[in-house]
Amino acid sequence: MLKVTNDAVQAHELVLVELAPGKMIADLGNWVEKSLMKGPPPGKPVGGMAVLGKGRSGTFPIDLKPGKYGMICFLPDAKDGKTHFSHGMTKEFTVAAK
User: How far is CA 50 from CA 4, 11, 28, 33, in A?
Assistant: First the structure.
């Protein structure tokens, strides 16, 4: 189980992606926003959390196999309307073999 808590001022979402070999989470963001999802995706979604308001938490079951993953938020920023991805709201991590 993965618990997600939004302790920020704005609402956020979490899209959890298993990245394709040689790809980064920024590649996924650019594929969605700039390429308009044309061509093969740079990863596949494996879980996530819908919109969480300030102070809200949620959990979802997840069993990640070894590999490279990323987290990204595509919600629009309240101040300028640009996606949180365009403001750098991404994170990559690796799950090592046991």
Answer: 10, 10, 18, 19
